[in-house]
Amino acid sequence: MTTPETGRPGVHARIDAVWRLESARITGGLARLVGDVGLAEELAQDALVAALEQWPESGVPDNPGAWLMAVGKRRAIDRIRRDRRLDAKIEEIGHRREAEAQGPPPEFEAAEDPERIDDDVLRLIFTACHPVLPARARVALTLRMLGGLSTDEIARAFLVGEPTVAQRIVRAKRTLSEAGVPFEVPEGSDRAARLASVLEVLYLIFNEGYAATAGDDWVRTDLCQEALRLGRVLARLAPREPEVHGLVALMEIQASRSRARTGPAGEPVPLHEQNRGKWDPLLIRRGFAALLRAKELGGTPGPYVLQAAIAACHARARTAAETDWPQIAALYEVLAGVAPSPIVELNRAVAVGMAHGPGRGLALLDTIADDPALRGYHLLPGVRGDLLARLGRTADARAEFERAAALTRNEPERRALLDRAAGMHGDGSTATGRAREESR
């Protein structure tokens, strides 16, 4: 049985929606079959092409995911049969699966075991985010194989050329194959190391959507939503990992502010100036629930749980004035001990400046001002400008805002920083910008 459509555009939109939902489990299932993530992704793409060719004429199957999986498996068997270079083990797998190719039409195939599907997706997440790959390659491969995004969509999201993204994906798959990375969920210490890589990739994707590093848009909601979706999937597949729930909590709470983070012209609206009535209460509740799950699992809080706790402090405050800055500063001090970095210290300086006065914040900031990791980082002069403005040092603050504007590659943020520089007054007041939002 098929679903009637009203024309090719309607079918193509349906295929796109199905692919976004099903691509990860299809690729994961095929990877389990052939033992090669790169080949599995190619076979999944072949199934997608078959759908694009057949569904506009035949209609969309009742179970489109099963249809795509069946076609992918049959293409895998065909590939195994004709590729004599594959070793005996792969050939044996092909013979073992041959019976499936003689089965009923794809739309009537029995449903896959849900637990096995979950295992396949979890294996795929750990494989795509393997530390053997550079961070940019992990991001591209994750969005391609787990998010179902096209090469063009990934390129547009990160403002790079499509050939660059295509090369990253090809090289990533080749690297995984040459390194002999197994399609499995690692155990023990290896699992902990790989999990950190998975969480890093998801948060990189989310952060690029939350505050774009370059381009004409301050927020890219699609990237935030995709990272959050993948985080929720990971939390369901790895329910005993506190840091997974911590990252989901952090993303849920930060995503709750999306509608309040930009003004009418797309300009950034800093945290303390946002209309909190626009914050999404459902996402906040989901974030609190995820944070509670993380805490209930016990153990020493990790960096994502601590960052989620900081975000929760902001979410609990009905107004900016009610924000518990001493608690946020204390949490940043713990975070600095668990995951020390110049960026954490930069955020800590903001929190200390809000909790204990701009003088103390500036003193803390001065301890990291010469750190090589912050060289060229626009938020360092941005934070410094805010602290100087609150101390009444307007000329110095104006210079810092102008320096920050020259360093950022995001156009809305550049304009906002220049406005802050131009809006400085002799009393030290300013249209305070993103600096305070860094303590999230």
Automatic annotation (TrEMBL):
Which Pfam families does this one have?
DUF6596, Sigma70_r2, Sigma70_r4_2
Q: Provide the alphabetized UniProt keywords.
A: DNA-binding, Sigma factor, Transcription, Transcription regulation
Domain annotation RNA polymerase sigma-70 region: ranges: 28-85
Domain RNA polymerase sigma factor 70 region 4 type, chain residue ranges per copy: 125-176
Q: Can you give the residue ranges of the DUF6596 domain?
A: 194-294
Q: What InterPro entries does UniProt report for this protein, alphabetically?
A: DUF6596, RNA_pol_sigma-70_dom, RNA_pol_sigma70_ECF_CS, RNA_pol_sigma70_r2, RNA_pol_sigma70_r4_t2, RNA_pol_sigma_r2, RNA_pol_sigma_r3/r4-like, WH-like_DNA-bd_sf
Q: For the region Disordered, give the residue spans.
A: 412-440
Question: Which NCBIfam families does this chain map to?
Answer: sigma70-ECF (TIGR02937)
The family note in this entry says: Belongs to the sigma-70 factor family. ECF subfamily.
Q: What protein does this entry describe?
A: RNA polymerase sigma factor
